[in-house]
Write a structure and sequence with these properties.
The protein is mostly helical. About 60% of the residues lie in helices and about 10% in strands.
């Protein structure tokens, strides 16, 4: 197991958009699991999560701000915390908002294409954050990332280039995703949403270099 916990890449702009996204996701999670009556949770999921067999424009966006459990939101928000600030700095606040949302859309469309008939609701910011990782890989491949490594009883801390951390992340998602092809109604992780978001981030990084939004 490896877990990145910080990078040494200085930011230029204060990442208030990244922090706002983290805040919204956290508040929605608290509402889902600590304020909302348990009997109402299924209704909220069925209404605002994205179901590939019956997608809508609204659920494509609302599903980006919902999570399926504590570890799900912790891992997502931590990755956004580490990598989001630098992408916000190079894109600027307004372009970063569009970038994040479009990556989330790309993630949703990828999962819909692969699991067109799935009735399993999909939630999570993973796809949009995967887009951030894709852009980070292109912009800062050699940035140093600090990683916690756990191998059975062996625990250590190492520093590696971002291309290694994100490359391992991408390959593990690609391998897991390919393993689900042809399997009907696979639950758990939406691997192709991750891959779709990542590819969207790589492509949009190039597109947004040519677009200025004041």
């Amino acid at each position: 197991m490896f877990f990145p916990y910080k990078d040494d890449n200085p930011r230029i702009l204060f990442p208030f958009v990244t922090y706002t996204i983290i805040g919204i996701n956290s508040l929605v999670f608290i509402y889902q699991y600590f304020i909302l009556p348990p009997e109402s949770l299924d209704h909220i999921i069925s209404t605002y999560a994205l179901t590939p067999a019956a997608p809508s424009v609204i659920t494509v966006f609302t599903s980006m701000f919902m999570h399926g459990g504590l570890m799900h939101i912790i891992f997502n928000m931590w990755f956004l915390w580490i990598f989001g600030d630098n992408i916000e700095s190079v894109l600027g606040h307004k372009r970063y908002v569009l970038f994040y949302l479009i990556c989330g859309m790309g993630a949703a469309l990828a999962q819909i294409q692969v699991n067109t008939g799935s009735q399993i609701p999909m939630v999570g910011a993973s796809g949009a954050i995967a887009g951030v990782l894709g852009a980070y890989l292109i912009r800062f491949p050699r940035a140093t990332v600090h990683v916690l490594v756990i191998l059975i009883i062996f625990i250590t801390f190492i520093r590696v280039p971002a291309m290694v951390v994100i490359g391992i992340w991408f390959l593990s998602n690609l391998t897991a995703g390919l393993g689900t092809l042809g399997v009907e109604e696979t639950g758990g992780t939406a691997w192709f949403a991750h891959l779709g978001g990542f590819v969207s981030g790589v492509v949009l990084n190039q597109v947004f270099k040519k677009i200025r939004i004041e």
